[in-house]
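Bump. Still looking for D-methionine transport system ATP-binding protein structure tokens.
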Amino acid sequence: MEGIIEVRNLTKTFQDKNNKVEALKDINLSIHKGEIFGIIGMSGAGKSTLVRCLNFLEKPTSGIVSVDGKDLSKLTAKELRNKRMEISMIFQHFNLLMQKSVLDNICFPLSIAGVNKKEARDRALELLKIVGMEEKAGAYPSQLSGGQKQRVAIARALANNPKILLCDEATSALDPQTTKSILELLKNINEEYGITIVIITHEMAVVREICSHVAIISNGTLAEAGKVIDIFTSPKTKAAKDLILHGDENISNELTDTYKDATIKLMKTKRCIRIVFSENSSFEPVIANMVLEHKAPVNILKADTKNIGGIARGEMILGLPEDEDTASRMIAYLKGRGLAVEEVSDYVD
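Sorry for the wait, here they are.
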């Protein structure tokens, strides 16, 4: 099935007098109508460049970006402007007009589109109700909190009834509680109006909370893409594994002291595995039963529960006995209980 956004062999190179930087290399993606699609990577990975290529704010050096079956590179300037009205964008720092009221900020794109004043005002008030900000219509951005500013920015982005909403680090400047409320709002908008949402983020928790599919960008290349639950359960690439293992501490790898200690222990353990518990497997005391059956202890280096699309998924990192035969039998035991199991010793630095 063809996506509402199709990216084929996309490359973006920046060139100045002395340097040539290949920000994106041969990216291929399909984003389908109605999805909430995450694009995640560390700082400098190229994810923000990619999202700007999706609406041709950055023109790719080579490759194709098509939206609703239209190759953006083949559109005239006027056709591209019209197509961009179907692709709205919200940003980390809100980009509101400080000298205009909340209501006027939302009316602004409507007036540019030629909507008369009364219709624009009625539409703006309707959108403020959707984002829970109707009481702030006459306020100015300087009088709002960060979360309120982002709600206004979302309302403004919805003004022209877009098919696609691009969110470039839209929650990075917000505290965790406000982030959760903004993500809940985006999820409701997706469900209520069927708008396709693309979220650019460096936070794995954001992807797990709201996205159905994800693409992992590393050093300008597409490391891995697929359903969030599949990649969380069984990541294939080092980039995906690093994000899943370290992503909640800090994407810049500034780990907490507790996690550093766990990592050091893991490095010293001969064989380590990561296991993911499904809904069905969480009722049985699998680890305790495994230890009793094999008469050998294991070292629990990390244990946590993650919320993936509203479903709790447990994960553990275990240090297995040094005896290879016992360790192999334990892995077989866990797999036989329906758990996802992968060895992690090779990608923990």
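Residues 269-344 form a domain with the Alpha-Beta Plaits fold (CATH 3.30.70.260).

Edit: fixed formatting.
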